[in-house]
Design goal:
The relative contact order is 0.16. By secondary structure, the chain is mainly alpha-helical. It is built from seven helices and no strands. It is globular and about 70 Å long. Helix content is 80%, strand content 0%. The chain has one domain. The longest helix is centred in the N-terminal third of the chain and has 43 residues.
Length: 222
């Protein structure tokens, strides 16, 4: 509870940006400890430098993987501006212009959906690849990352459903507790603050199980 409490305190400062890599680094630390079979996998909050390094590395890796999405969005914006300019220059009808806009953003929406599904499977694989190698560059060996995602599709879906289930249960509990006057609202606030770090721990543990399974190790649980 103390470790989750420290995570909650750090998450409250997320608006300062700097604490965000620490929280991501904590997820990485949990993943690493579960992969290595530690009985109590929650790391201590005693090496902020390592946590920051791990978190920032994974965040850089994830940003690189999202670059195609931003390229698509930029192309769509430019295409939309171009259509608007062409319409003014050639007196194109509003119906034709609307059809052009609809076609452009319809295509972008389809591509964005496909990309979001891909990132859904690749995000855990990026973390696992980093934990396995402890190298920033290893996350950009795209073939290896894709192979991790492909070989563990079912486990990644189960991990996502488990995290969603935990989030749903906590949210439902918050709704019930919040009905209690005064005390319930205070308890709900405390739970809400701790919810983010707790779900981070859940995700990290699940990623660690996948990593352990992928490299022939058996995760140990307390």
């Amino acid at each position: 509870m103390g470790k989750i409490g420290i995570g909650a305190a750090i998450s409250l400062l997320s608006f300062l940006i700097i604490p965000i890599p620490l929280l991501v680094g904590y997820l990485v630390g949990i993943t690493r400890n579960v992969q290595d079979g530690l009985e109590r996998p929650l790391p201590e909050w005693d090496d902020f430098g390592q946590l920051f390094k791990d978190g920032l590395s994974v965040m850089v890796g994830q940003i690189v993987y999202t670059l195609p999405f931003w390229v698509i969005m930029c192309i769509a914006v430019v295409a939309t501006a171009g259509l608007g300019g062409a319409a003014e220059a050639t007196a194109t009808s509003e119906d034709l212009l609307a059809a052009g806009f609809l076609a452009t953003w319809g295509l972008v929406s389809c591509l964005a959906l496909i990309f979001m599904v891909a990132i859904f499977f690749l995000s855990p694989a990026i973390v696992i690849q980093y934990v396995r190698t402890n190298e920033l560059g290893a996350m950009f060996r795209f073939g290896e990352v894709i192979a991790i995602a492909r070989e563990n599709l079912g486990d990644i879906v189960i991990a996502a459903l488990a995290s969603f289930g935990a989030s749903f249960v906590l949210s439902a509990a918050l709704g019930v507790i919040n009905i209690i006057p005064c005390l319930g609202q205070i308890i709900s606030l405390v739970i809400a603050i701790a919810m983010g770090p707790y779900l981070t721990a859940v995700s990290g543990h699940l990623y660690g199980q996948i990593a352990s399974k992928s490299w022939g190790k058996e995760a140990k649980f307390s």
